[in-house]
Amino acid sequence: AGCEKEPSSYMWIYILMGNMLRGIGETPIAPLGISYLDDFAKEENVPVYVACLHTIGMLGPMFGFLLGSLCARLYVDIGFVDLGSITITPQDSRWVGAWWLGFLIGGVISFLAAIPFCFLPKSLKKPKEANNDQTSYYSPVIMPCIFQSQLIYPFLSDFYTSLKKVLSNRMYFTFMCCSLLQFNSFIGFLTYKPKYMEQQYGQSTAKSNFLIGLTSLPPVGLGMFLGGLLMKKYKMGIIGATKFAFSMSFVAYVFTLLHFFVGCENHVVAGMTVSYQ
């Protein structure tokens, strides 16, 4: 009982607030960035530009895993303790890497990357060939009166009407459900794969993050970019894009089944996998 101690640190609050602010700052890039491209780019070039946007979005986590691998090799109290007195190595289960260092580096880079946005023009002239679809995410249909009035009731009323109209679109609703299922499985796969590599293959945290960032995310980014090129080359419409997405998803599902045949036997642990005798 004398060795037990209740956790008294409230640092998790700072991490929670930091992630909330990060989410608020990066959320407009996805919906408004895509609608920005859709409004001011030629219709046949939009798939390539959107593919480039998503590809860059996948390169970020890749570099994040590589940065995490580097930080995991450094001791958590780097700069505050004499590293020569540390007797354990990153392969030791008691090792704690400098996880906090990635937040500082990522925050500085994000701040520097946000500066060019301040110099973008407030408005652009639409080219004649631009897509003038009035159901764009950035059109007044989807984002009503939020910038036109400070009254809450008109905004909520128009927002409910717009949300109902969007969700009643069968194509959009089906796509949203498919995306929910795909990202649900992808995030779970990406989250637990490093731990699986550590437990089953005896790899350190640093090496697991390095391998994940180098092998898992670049193919996804490459696939997004190639998908955009194929859509532009063959000028796919909604039906063609749907058939293309279904075919690729089915092939990916077949290949994913191969994961069931990859792995090692469980470790022999007395009391868990074998008896004490």
Describe what you observe in this structure.
InterPro entries: MFS_trans_sf, OATP. The protein has 277 residues and is mainly alpha-helical. The chain has a domain at 41-124 and 152-260. The chain contains 9 helices and no strands. It has helices at 11-26, 29-40, 46-72, 99-114, 152-167, 170-201, 205-215, 217-234, 238-256. α2 (29-40) runs antiparallel to α3 (46-72) and α3 (46-72) runs antiparallel to α8 (217-234). The chain is globular.
Number of helices: 9
Gross geometry: globular
Strand content: under 5%
Largest sheet at a glance? none
Name the helicity range: 55-70%
Based on CA atoms alone, the radius of gyration comes out at 24 Å
Mean pLDDT, nearest integer?
A: 78
N- and C-termini, Cα separation: 30 Å
Question: Would you identify the regions where 5 or more consecutive residues have pLDDT less than 50?
Answer: 129-150
Main structural class? mainly alpha
| Number of DSSP-assigned strands | 0
Order of helices and strands: HHHHHHHHH
Transmembrane segments: 12-34, 46-76, 96-120, 171-190, 210-231, 243-262
GO molecular function: bile acid transmembrane transporter activity; sodium-independent organic anion transmembrane transporter activity
InterPro entries: MFS_trans_sf, OATP
Membrane topology: Multi-pass membrane protein
